[in-house]
Design brief:
- This protein has helices at 5-27, 60-77; strands spanning 31-33, 36-38.
- The chain has 78 residues and is mainly alpha-helical.
- Strand 1 and strand 2 form a beta hairpin.
- The longest helix has 23 residues, at 5-27.
Length: 78
């Protein structure tokens, strides 16, 4: 049986789709969750990074130093 060009093209298209459908799940998709790119080869063994909440006042040390300096200057005036 002689295949026509049209039937041969459909045959290649069919096998191409089968091949693409078989390869698609092996590629995977990357997504970023909590600063971590998943799936990565190490996501199950990756350490959890915890950053505790900082002070509300971003310049707490400076504020404390200014209060201390003000208290010292008031004591020196007496």
């Amino acid at each position: 049986m002689i295949e026509t060009k049209r039937s041969q093209a459909w045959k290649y298209a069919f096998w191409g789709l089968i091949l693409a459908g078989g390869l698609a799940p092996s590629v995977g998709c990357q997504v970023s969750v909590a600063g971590q790119t998943l799936p990565s080869p190490y996501y199950l063994r990756d350490d959890v990074q915890y950053f505790p909440a900082g002070p509300e006042n971003k310049i707490a040390n400076e504020t404390a130093a200014m209060k201390k300096a003000r208290a010292e200057s008031l004591q020196q005036r007496r």
